[in-house]
Input
Amino acid sequence: MGIESLLIFLIVGAVAGWLAGQLVKGYGFGLIGNIVVGIVGALIAGWLLPAVGISLGTGTVAAIIHATIGAVILLVLLRLVKQA
Output
């Protein structure tokens, strides 16, 4: 993995984490937290969306949307666990 790929990976994670924090109210994690939430969200969506049969395409914008969907799922699950 080159430095450019790593940089894009971190930017996609940060943007997806920030977007998920905006969509799921009450969650703000800062830069590092947003990157972690975005990357974990991308992993969740990478496993869940193909299993359901959803394909978003390729490219950076699709990767951000993909990771944001997974991050929203992660934050909603965290909220449910926290309330229980």
